[in-house]
Amino acid sequence: MSHPHPELGAPPKLPKGGLRVTPLGGLGEIGRNMTVFEYEGRLLIVDCGVLFPEEEQPGVDLILPDFTTLVDRLDDVEAIVLTHGHEDHIGGVPYLLRLKPDIPLIGSKLTLALIEAKLQEHRIRPYTLEVAEGRREDVGPFDCEFVAVNHSIPDALAVAIRTPAGLAVHTGDFKMDQLPMDGRLTDLHAFARLSEEGIDLLLSDSTNAEVPGFVPAERDISNVLRGVFANARKRIIVASFASHIHRVQQILDAAHEHGRKVAFVGRSMVRNMGIARDLGYLRVPSGLVVDVKTLDDLPDDKVVLICTGSQGEPMAALSRMANRDHQIRIVQGDTVILASSLIPGNENAVYRVINGLSRWGRTSSTRATPRSMSRATPRPANCCTSTTSASRRT
Ligand SMILES: [Zn+2]
User: Fold this and answer.
1) Band of the pLDDT at 112, cuts 50, 70, 90?
2) Residue 255 C-alpha to ligand 1 middle, in angstroms?
3) Rounded alpha-carbon distances, angstroms, from residue 87 to 92, 242, 359
4) How far apart are the CA of 232 and the centre of ligand 1, in A?
């Protein structure tokens, strides 16, 4: 990788008792979050995510943080703290552990389950330490305290890192949803307590954090979904993130209410929802979820498919359906719901998918996000409706 500022040279030697914080990715971009804390020669890594390529980067599968500065110092790494299970926070871990598989991973129950499943595909069995909010752990010279934060994936944590150099707080991604689906609020009391102690460095970043106002509640989306389900006459195909367990829960609930069966489509969706169900983060009424292979035996108005591809990712199930490159064929009368906010930068890819879907089935394509709920009303099956909103990543 070419260095953007070769004239700067290597940073100065770390003064005794000083804390150095080095972001290796995630600043000025949505993805590959990774921050390294250094104290007295020891390193603590917070998150190790991937960035997904843009359309002008053909042939690129994933973009990793720049590990160059770490390669010669892997023995100095105490652990990797993972704040939550999104790909842009854990997706790079297999590539770092390939260099040194025994670096311990620290995270919540769900976060560790998601990364362990991913590492299994890379044939790596990691050393892990499960933590929860309120827990405090010494990780080498780093005294780490974990704080609950609400996010679009359950079980997210912020981490307060104490060293003799001071108190640094890394919030991870967070939302301020006051009525979260799982009742787990961002712990403002803990942040207030930390601020009373005296935070020397606050690292805080969340997609669309610069947009003023309140984030809509995740549970508000259920009314949008119910409206679409009530009016759909044939199959319903919902695209969402494979990690958006709360959103998938609401789709399952709507399907159950309307007497439809649900099949998960796509490897990451099937894997993650299996984990979420096993660990109790996803409530699935018995008999609701069926294998995709059995769908042909059901009438169209009894079927819901939940797949990936809400951001127009070219290899995701929905994009492949739009390209007629998937076993599931979109036909006239199907309703397609893009059940996640449009992440800035993905506009072209998403509209390409919507165009493709419309071509095959004159499909009613509805974007259902909390902020667009008043606009995301179902339309006749022969028109393509897409309402997008630049709301926070919800
Ligand atoms: Zn996130």
Assistant:
1) very high
2) 26
3) 8, 10, 31
4) 31
